[in-house]
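tool_call predict_complex ligand=glycyl-adenosine-5'-phosphate
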Amino acid sequence: MSEQAQINVMEQLVSLCKRRGFVYPASEIYGGLNGFWDYGPLGVLLKNNIRDSWWRSMVEVPPIGPDGHPVDMVGLDSAIIQNPKTWVASGHVGGFSDPMVDDRETKQRYRADHLVCAIAKVKRKNGDVQELGFLAVLDGDRAVNDFVKRADKLARKTGGGEIQPPERSELTLFTKLDPERQKQVWGPEATQAGTLTEPRAFNLMFQTYVGAIQDETSKAYLRPETAQGQFLNFKNIVDTTRVKIPFGVAQIGKSFRNEVTPRNFIFRSREFEQMEMEWFCHPDEARKWYDFWKEERMKWWKSLGVRDENLRFRDHDADELSHYSKMTVDIEYKYPFTAPDFGELEGIAHRGCYDLTQHQTHSGQKLDYFDQELQLKLKEQGASADEIKQKSRYIPNVIEPASGLTRAVLVVLCEAYRRDPNRQGSVEYLSIKPQFAPIKCGIFPLVNKEGMPEVSEKLYLDLRKHFTCEHDVKQSIGKRYARMDEIGTPFCVTIDGETMKDQTLTVRERDAMTQERVSLDKIKGYLLERLSAE
Ligand code: GAP
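tool_result ok
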C-alpha cells in the first residue's frame, strides 16, 4: 500500500469511528482534550467483547500448562489510587519519565527520544557540497524522507541543489548528541537553528490530592499501570486463596499517563485501559514460563482475527529494557501509521524478583513465599535441614504479559477496516470476527407494513436474549444493510413477503454479501452456531 493510502486508512477509520459511534473525542463540545477519548455505544460493546475474551482466556479458562494441566489463575480489581509509597517503591516516582524538549520558536513539544538528527548536505549546481545545518525530524519509518524534504526546502531558499540523502544509520537520536551539538539543531518545524531546549525528564504520572488538605502529605497518583495492584496483594492472595506457585493474578482496568505526545488516535492516549497478568513462579522456572506466555499471548491476538502477517515478536535490546526488566519481548502489530514497520501492542517482561523485593523493603512486610511442595521434594531428595530451610523460602520471580485494551480495540478496527468500491450503499465495511462484533444481527422487515414489522419485532424480542441485535424498520433495505456493514454486523435477517407465506426469511452475510433462506423456527440455532464458530 502506498504511503498516502496508509495515511488515508487512518483518516477514514477515525471518521467512521466518529460517524458510527465507536469513538468520540472526549469533551468535544468544549473543544476536546488532547489524549482523551470516549467510547461510544458501539465502541463500548466492542471493547467489552475484547475485554471479556481476555478475561475468559486468562481467568475463567486459563491455558493448559507445560505439565498438561490448566495453569492456576485468579482475578483482581485493585484501586486506581494507592498509597503513594507504592510508586516510590515501584520506581515510578523516581524514574517513570520521558525526556522532553520544547521548541522556543514554534512552541511545539517533542519526546527527545523520538527525534533523530543528521547534517543536511546539498550539492550545488557548480558541484560544491555545502552543509545546511543539523536538522531534526520525527523518528520512524519515514524519517529519511522527511529529512530530505526538509533539507530540500532549506536548500531552495539558498540557491537550490541536490540533497544527499543520509543513510538510516546516519540519523542520530537527539538524546545521544552532546549538549553543545543539541544547541545547533534545527527543530522539526523551526526556521532557524538552536531553538530546542535541553531535554528535561518529565514524569508521566498524574498527581492528585486525597482528603481536604492539599499539600505534600496528601499528594497521591493515578496509577500509570494496573500491575502494582497485583504485587501489593500478593500476600493477601496467597493467604486467602488456594493458589500455589506457580500462579497468576490478572487484572483489567484504567491506567493514566500524562504522555508528552499522545497521538495516532487511541494508540497512545493519556487515559487508557490495560489488561495485565503477573505470573509468580520459582526463579529457576522463570525462563520456561516466559517462553510459555510469549506463545500463549500470540495465540490470543490471532484469536481476535488478527492476521499472522500483521503480527510479530520483537526482543528488546539491553539498552531499552525498563528498570525492572531482565528481558522483554514485544508483540508488535503493523498499524496503518507504522506500515511497513510495526509498533508495540503488548510487552511480555521477565521482571525477576524486582517488584516484590522493592515492596518488601519499602513496606517492611515479608513478601517471600514458603514453598511447601519444594520442601517435601528436597526432603525426599535427602537435602540437609539447612538447605531445605534456605531453598524453600524465596521471593518469586514474575513474568508479566501487559497489553492495552484500548490499543486492542484499535488493532481490531484497523484489521477489520475494508474498502470495496463495488459494494452498494457504502464502500466501507468492518470485517470484525463475529464473536467480537458489537451487534451480531440486524433484524429488518422489508417494508414497514403488511404484518412484517410485527413478525420482525417478535423475532427481535427472542433473539436479543441470546446476542446483541438491532431491530430497524426505517429506510431502504440497501441502506440498512450498508449501515450494518459499516459497523461490522456479521448477519442481517430480513422478513419479507415470502416469510408471510412460508415462514422463511433471508439471512445476509456481511463479507460475502451472500443471502440464503432459513426457516423462522431454525434461525436462532443457525445464528448461534455461526456466531460461536472459531
Ligand atoms: N506493567 C507494564 C506496563 O505497563 P507498558 O509497556 O508501559 O508496560 C503495557 O504498557 C501496554 O499498555 C502497552 O503494550 C500498550 O498496549 C498499553 N499502553 C501503554 N501506554 C499506553 C498509552 N499511553 N495509551 C494506550 N495504551 C498504552
